[in-house]
Amino acid sequence: MTASHPELLICFSHLRWNFVFQRPQHLMVRFARDRRVIFWEEPLDAAAGEPPRLDLRTCEQSGVVVATPMLAPELQGDAREAALRKLLDAAVAAEPRDIVRWYYTPMMLPFSRHLAAACTVYDCMDELANFKFAPPQLIGLEQELLALADVVFTGGYSLWEAKRDRHPNIHPFPSSVDRHHFAQARTLTDAPADQAPIPGPRLGFYGVVDERMDLALLQVVADARPDWSLVIVGPVVKIDPATLPQRPNLHFLGGKSYAELPAYLAGWDVALMPFAVNEATRFISPTKTPEYLAGGRPVVSTPIADVVRHYGELEAVKIADTAPAFVEACEAALSLARRPGAWLAEADTVLAAMSWDETFRRMNREIAKVFEAREAAARALIPAPVIRPSRRRKPVDYLIVGAGYAGSVLAERLTRQLGKQVLLIDRRPHIGGNAYDETDAAGVLMHRYGPHIFHTNSPEVFAYLSRFTDWRPYEHRVLANVRGGQLTPIPINRTTLNQLYGLDLQTDEDAAAFLRTQAEPVEKIRTSEDVVISQVGRELYETFFRGYTRKQWGMDPSELDKSVTARVPTRVNTDDRYFTDKFQAMPKAGYTRMFENMLDQPGLTVATGVEFEDVRDDTAYDRLIFTGPIDAFFDHRFGELPYRSLHFRHETLDQPWFQSVGTVNYPDEQTPYTRITEYKHLTGQSSQRTTITYEYPRADGDPYYPVPRPENQALYKRYEALALETPDVTFVGRLASYRYYNMDQVVGQALATFRRIAARAGYTVAAEDQVGAAAAG
User: What pLDDT does residue 772 have?
Assistant: First the structure.
């Protein structure tokens, strides 16, 4: 793909160019800046008996060529597909260039699958199979398209999570926002003629009115607050307009152009997203959310997964799952609209990182990678001389990638015990991996990547780490915020049961007998849901596990392997400790100090802020130890291994304490975060200020939790086979093993790996240094 020979991009779309201006239009306008773009629409009816023809018109603003097939209505079935194929062949016959096929719908594959393409893109904007009147052949055609596509994009993270195991090169691209366009709503004063007479306050929606809209909810809101005006802007599709609810304060204004939308938005006090929660909306990622926020309007939405995921933590976005709650949320949003300030600044901060230009740039880069891979494959057929770096770093015995527990333990052992020269690198600007802690501006020792509580039953692991730190005894306690604010111990114990059910269970036997009355028989335990329900019943499952699991994993427990909750932590006594391990403590001076002491060894060089790619070719080393993602090491040859990630929001408060225990869990699915941790409980510090951390699970970001599904393990096994065929590299740690290890398990695995290295090399380890020999991870 070069500037002198740009490719032709043909976009096959089920949405018409002039219907509504959204994702396809935003992207194709940008692609048309440096290549020829043909936007192929659904056919329109020609006069009966008229021969097939292709109407071509050029969009004056963008240069996109809009192609509309005109077919007589009697032309159906195979004859229709043959006619479309002939029109397509004629349209590209005079195009002496590489072709990129870009699909928004698999339904256009039958007449275009023969087209020779240098790159095929499937931009899966929505789960079309879930839409009303979806043709039955769509699912089969999508399977074929996924097999043909070189790269797949999805319209949001929920859709990516649902399809990521179906293609090796799939990327989530939530719809972005034209901020400058919609920001006009903050200053426009001229009201559109059909909206101006409508009294305020106005609560509005723009978009397609179809089966995704909860019309019954609109009716309830209109009836509950007749003093509000509900304004609905957009075309009515796939539903009978006669079925729209009729109320004096409910106004359906019809479709408007993209250019007109800011003027309508300017006249609203609150923007609405009254989507039905059904199969058609399960995977949507509405672009309206950032557009409404760019226009300076607070938003009220039903609990659409990607809205909750990306915007639920914003004060400007209210989420409501029932009609009464929706009315209440609208009232709160109206109050917010009257006092623009911090909530608007917070929204603007989020929007600053979003733009269609950035989405286009990243998508364009993925297409370029396809072309580059093809060119590299062609070059590989031509013998080339071996070129080695002329200047190399100082030779070392071992290059270790990753300065977390696995890499740091092995670096310490190899230098101290075997006298090796080791270079330890990490892409982050610090050592310690996710266990890194630091003193913040308030003087509170806090964990940048969420709470890390040390606990182990291994005397060997505890003794090994004790060489590098003194300990502060600490037993972690957690409360769960359930049923509207009730704080109760988690794991579930006898106290939990007494609080929730108003009981007076006095003995372990009483509690065990009660749990037996709650448990439900499950014929065969297959999923995490089965595990929990079979042990504690559906009510406790829904109270403590379902919502938390959905947030944490982005999936329902019924979709997750039973191993996730194979050992449900349920007790019949009153022990409220979160862990019951023999050794429970926190490093007295913090984890970072412990790592500093561990890595203070002769022969050990530590380099942070360094990527593996930056040193792999200019550092001379005998052996490589890799603790990063195993799929990344092999350039994602078989596709990316799925992970869940986390986003942390740290806050320092001008008060001595925030909560009564170290961590409070929030299992309710409508609360966007899973837990809040207050670090002074963990560190034992005394201060008039305190620091807390909110945790938000997410699909993108640094890898934290391998997703426990059989297909993911099968994918890992393919990478493991490659690792076994790479004997000069040792893979160790969570990411290299695609397993979630606790800290002590990683230490144990690293110590066991060291002993195998030493044994293979014929070293005899002194008796006093055999710490960890039994702690195989």
Answer: 41
CB of 59 closer than 8 Å to CB of 26: no
What gap in Å lies between CA 324 and CA 221, rounded to an integer? 8
**Is the pLDDT score of 36 beyond 80?**
yes
339: Cβ contacts below 8 Å, ≥ 6 apart: none
**101 within 8 A of 12, measured Cβ to Cβ:** yes
The 3-state secondary structure of 458-504, one letter per residue: CHHHHHHHCCCCCEEECCCEEEEEECCCEEEEECECHHHHHHHHCCC
Name residue 413's amino acid. R
Helix ranges, 34-136 (H): 77-92
SS3 annotation, 281-334: HCCCCCCHHHHHHHCCCCEEECCCHHHHHHHCCCCCEEECCCHHHHHHHHHHHH
What's the CA gap between 668 and 34, in Å, rounded? Answer: 48
Contact predicate 190/264, CB 8 Å: no
Contact 474, 585 (CB under 8 A): yes
Please state whether the peptide bond connecting residue 383 to the residue before it is cis, i.e. omega within 30 degrees of 0.
no
Instruction: Say if CB 214 and CB 274 are below 8 A apart.
Output: yes
Instruction: Write the pLDDT tens digit of every residue in 95-139.
Output: 767 899 999 999 999 999 999 899 999 999 877 666 665 677 888
Q: What distance lies between CA 737 and its chain's CA centroid?
A: 21
Task: Tell me the two tokens of residue 565.
Answer: 């909750």
Distance of alpha carbon 477 from alpha carbon 487, whole angstroms: 12
**665-683 pLDDT tens trace:** 999 988 999 999 999 999 9
Residues constituting the chain: 777
Task: Report the pLDDT value the prediction gives residue 764, as an integer from 0 to 100.
Answer: 67
Whether the pLDDT of residue 644 is over 70: the answer is yes
Residue with tokens 């929204």: 347
Give the helix/strand (H/E) hosting 650: strand 643-653
Radius of gyration of the chain (CA): 30
CB 444 within 8 A of CB 685: yes
Within 10 A of 315 (CB to CB), how many other CB atoms are there?
Answer: 15
HEC readout, 561-581? EHHHHCCCCECCCCCCECCCC
Sequence-ordered alpha helix ranges (H) in 599-701: 612-615, 630-633, 680-683
